[in-house]
Write a structure and sequence with these properties.
Elements lengths: L8 H20 L5 E3 L6 E3 L4 E4 L8 H4 L5 E4 L1 H6 L4 H12 L3 H11 L7 H17 L1
Antiparallel strand pairs: 1-2, 3-4
Helix pairs in contact: 1-6
């Protein structure tokens, strides 16, 4: 990832998303480098998988945007073409995290809606996920 001299907060968010997504997808991979889409069960190489959101980008506070519960492994068909395949996504979240998980995510979305991250917040998280990725 190229270093920018004075990145904007938007550029830092994009940089963090890239390293966060790489880290999450690689960590989820089996010994052969495959992951499963949480919504359809497709088996795909971790590099080709996507990290989908239950609450999508435009309406998502940053802490929820980068939440390990709100973001899950998906194939491109489910994430992009089926717009997250949200019914299956919700069922997966409930099976994995409990019946009240959707209510918890909704409450987080409301309670965090005014949160602001600083340049330093982004930079420290980028470095943290870079280090995690190196160890995988």
């Amino acid at each position: 990832m190229p270093k920018l001299l004075n990145p904007t907060l938007t550029q830092l968010k994009v940089m963090l998303w890239k390293v966060y997504s790489l880290c999450r997808r690689k960590k989820a991979a089996d010994f052969d480098g495959y992951v499963r889409c949480v919504t359809c069960g497709a088996k795909i190489k971790w590099e080709r998988a996507q990290l989908g959101h239950y609450y999508p980008r435009p309406e998502c506070p940053l802490s929820l945007f980068f939440s390990n519960i709100n973001t899950q492994i998906q194939c491109v068909q489910c994430n992009k073409w089926k717009h997250g395949n949200l019914t299956s996504y919700a069922l997966y979240l409930q099976r994995t995290y409990g019946r009240d998980v959707l209510e918890i995510l909704s409450e987080m979305k409301l309670s965090l809606k005014n949160e602001q991250w600083t340049e330093e917040d982004f930079k420290s998280k980028i470095e943290m996920y870079k280090e995690k990725f190196k160890k995988l």
